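Researcher: Re-running this chain for the archive, since the previous output was lost when a drive failed. Same request as before.
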Amino acid sequence: MTCSWAPVQLGRTDLRVVPLGLAASYGIGDKDVERAFERGLNLYYWGSQRSPEFGRALKRIASRDRGKVVTVIQSYARSPSRIARSLENALRALRLEYADVLLLGWWNLPPHERILAGAADLVRRGKARHLMLSCHHRPTFPALARDPRVGLLMLRYNAAHPGAEWDVFPHLESNRPGVVAYTTTSWRQLLDPAFVPTGERVPTGTDCYRFVLSSPYVDACYTGPRNGAELDSAMRALDLGPMNEEELAWMRRVGANVRERTRLRARGMSLADRLMNFLSGFGFRTAGELPRSGG
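Model: Regenerated structure tokens:
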């Protein structure tokens, strides 16, 4: 269990982080980004929406403490040349010589060899230190984990979406990639009283982060705070530590209800899934229609 301020190693990489990573996409201001670093957070995710304020803060942090900050730069590009261009643009914007992690986003089956070879070449050339992949098709993760070029996995895991507990975690070998979770609050659905069973306490952001970081298979998770109060709520999870069995059972009850109540909403992801799979060369299929073998 990683729910504390003690740094952890991210799987088979040499990266050590406090297990709560800060994401750039949700509006947190530059002063709070720097405050989070001063408190101890050192994992920074420059992802889908690259907030200028977040970028300015990350530049200042890296300029004085580059060796202490772990940067994750994401690319959704679907060709080696475009991945390289995306990474170079991000490094230039942040005034960095390299990324600690290059994240290839939304590959629901293992990327074609030319993609992985091109990304591995960027690591060889020193543009990134490690390679991470994200995926919405859980059965693919064991195949990704077996590729020695893949140092980290990014997956959806929360009380409303616990499927990684049977589709992914039991299938990872001892020398596994680092595992970083996202959508810890299930897009804030776990915080919504309308989705919580009658008589149950409504979870807070703190509860959601504690639940995820109580898993022995999760090395770290991201938080995407909109403001300083949400940042403090996330960091409080590290103060309190992992959940006990009673708390975990409560979160699972709430999560099951959220999953059932939001089933129709989840269908809205199917078009985006189909489009990303088509662009990836896997056909116009949803993640659920892809082969379970990951082949």
